[in-house]
Design brief:
This protein is of the alpha+beta class. The protein has a single domain, classed as Aminopeptidase (3-Layer(aba) Sandwich). Helices cover 29% and strands 29% of the residues. Helix 1 packs antiparallel against helix 2. The protein is globular, with a radius of gyration of 16 Å. The relative contact order is 0.17. It comes from Microbispora amethystogenes. This is N-acetyltransferase. Pfam families: Acetyltransf_7.
Length: 180
């Protein structure tokens, strides 16, 4: 499966993929309010204008029909004062789910982050899914989640022998955009 960097012509298609991928979650958060865009779309829009935006780590999986099947974004984060990467959101259009698109995007993002010399990638997600990519509980590496209640769902993938230790901080829009 071909994974490539997002380009300017992909912006609206990526927004559509993110909206479709997170629509079921949005309905659960805001029953009967389909006009409210998923918080992940708002987050994506805010991240695009933030200094933490890393265009080389905004990746898409093209669909066979010429559209976009999936998207993953990594932005600048920090562990203490050490620059690291935060992964997310990861979005796969419902028509392309369960076909390896998400896995291919995560593998590509991790490969690119490692090639760029990043020390680690952090994320909030399902341990059962992300374990296959080498993610482990952040606390096992001395990395504190932005919210202690995230527990085992906050994970890191470390490149090299050791990770920086301390509190993890995502790019600023993550603290502004409300997921509730």
């Amino acid at each position: 499966m071909l994974i490539r960097r997002e380009n300017l012509g992909d912006v609206e298609a990526v927004r559509g993929v993110v909206a479709a991928a997170f629509a079921p979650h949005q309905e659960a958060r805001h029953p009967g309010r389909p006009q409210v865009p998923p918080v992940e779309v708002v987050l994506l829009d805010e991240l695009r204008t933030d200094p933490g935006w890393l265009p080389e780590l905004s990746l898409v999986a093209p669909a066979p029909d010429g559209g976009i099947a999936g998207h993953v974004l990594c932005t600048r984060a920090h562990v203490g004062t050490v620059p690291v990467v935060g992964l997310g959101p990861l979005s796969v259009h419902p028509a392309h789910q369960r076909r390896g698109v998400g896995s291919a995007l995560v593998h590509a993002a991790l490969g690119a982050a490692e090639a760029l010399g990043e020390p680690l990638v952090g994320l909030l997600g399902d341990p059962a899914y992300y374990r296959r990519f080498g993610f482990e509980p952040a606390s096992a590496h001395g990395v504190a989640a932005p919210d202690p209640s995230w527990g085992e769902f906050f994970q890191v993938r470390v490149f090299g022998r050791s990770a920086p230790r301390g509190p993890f901080a995502y790019a600023e829009p993550f603290s502004r955009v409300d997921g509730g």
